[in-house]
Amino acid sequence: MTTMPRTAALPSSSLRVFDLSLGQMLWSRRTVFMSLVVGGPVMMALLVAIVDAAGVGGVEINGVRLNGSAVFGMMIWIFYLRFTVPVLAVFYGTSLIADEVEDKTITYLFTRPIPRAAVLIGKYLAYLACTTMVVLPSVMLVYFLIVPRGGSLAETFPSLVIDLGILFLGLAVYGAMFAAVGAWLKRPVLTGLLYVFGWEPVILVLPGYLKKLTVAHYLQSLVPHAMPADNSAVAILTTLFRETPPVPVALAALSAMLAVFLWLATRAVERREYVLDQ
Q1: Helices 215-222 & 153-184, crossing angle to 10 degrees?
Q2: At 64, phi and psi to the nearest 5?
Q3: Which of 6, 13, 210, 252 has the fewest CB atoms in 10 Å of its CB?
Q4: In this predicted structure, what is the pLDDT of residue 1?
Q5: Handedness of CA 10, 14, 15, 17 (dihedral sign)
């Protein structure tokens, strides 16, 4: 009499999938794309440092010259939180399951004696590790290129740690969201790009409570608290986005979004029948 193989536990199975997927992600074509995306802010920071060293001038807004901390804070918001983090989450998060379907390897994964949810969770953890290992060093390079001009590294380092935490949280929540999109929809990349460049930018500037349904609404409330309170960058951000929730509310909302999106993604993987095109 034959016996069915026992299904491994979810945590151990997820770690096995994570170990297998991390190497594949790090050496994939998407990592080249990701390096180009995060290289943009570094090149801009290098240009600002060269211009400042040459004594040509500095970054000014409304006639006010911004110090290094203010410029770095604005780059965190504009280049990383509003572009790099969501874009990378779209291209990585939506591919966690969609790539396996496109390559017709999803059935091989599901025939292994591991829970289906472990495939999604393990690949999601690999995405989070891969993007973190590329994005955070980029932020560090920008920090050391920008902040020393008119700023103190010792005074601003705690803000840098908070910035890194915000970016990690953004990668986690956006990644979970687009992992769910990729697990449920057939054209997830298009849906993700429409959300990032269509829905969020429009909703954030409109009055009303619909902005509370966006990830950026809660992330933006954490940004001013990650920058020195005495520079003009805070005033600029609070002028553009006046209605920001308190930090505890934002953290609770982002944590809830992370849990709900991951639950939706794993539920889709567990229940959906993946029919492969011949």
Answers
A1: 170
A2: -100, 125
A3: 6
A4: 40
A5: positive
- Map residue 4 onto helix, strand or coil: coil
Could you tell me which residues come within 8 angstroms of residue 172 by beta carbon, excluding any fewer than 6 positions away? 128, 258
Could you read off the pLDDT of 162-208 as tens digits, one per residue? 999 999 999 999 999 999 999 888 788 999 999 999 999 888 888 77
Please report which confidence band the pLDDT of residue 62 belongs to, taking 50, 70 and 90 as the band edges. Answer: very low
Mean pLDDT across the stretch 67-86? 86
Q: In this predicted model, what pLDDT tens digit does every residue of 26-55 receive, in sequence order?
A: 888 888 888 888 999 999 889 888 877 776
Is 118:10 a contact under the CB 8 Å cutoff? Answer: yes
Q: Output the six-digit token pair for 266.
A: 């794993």
> Which residue do the tokens 């509003």 mark?
82
Could you tell me the two tokens for 36? 């180009």
Rg (CA), the chain: 21
Nearest to 193 by CA among 99, 41, 86, 265: 86
| Bridge partners of residue 60, in order along the sequence | 65
Whether 4 shows a pLDDT value over 70: the answer reads no
Q: Which H or E element spans position 60?
A: strand 60-61
Under 8 Å between Cβ of 183 and 272? yes
**Among 150, 9, 134, 154, which residue's Cα sits nearest to residue 72?**
150
How far the first Cα of the chain sits from its last, in Å, is 35
Q: How far apart, in whole angstroms, are the C-alpha atoms of residue 263 and residue 278?
A: 30
Residue 74 CA to residue 242 CA, distance in Å, equals 16
What are the tokens at 50? 């060269």
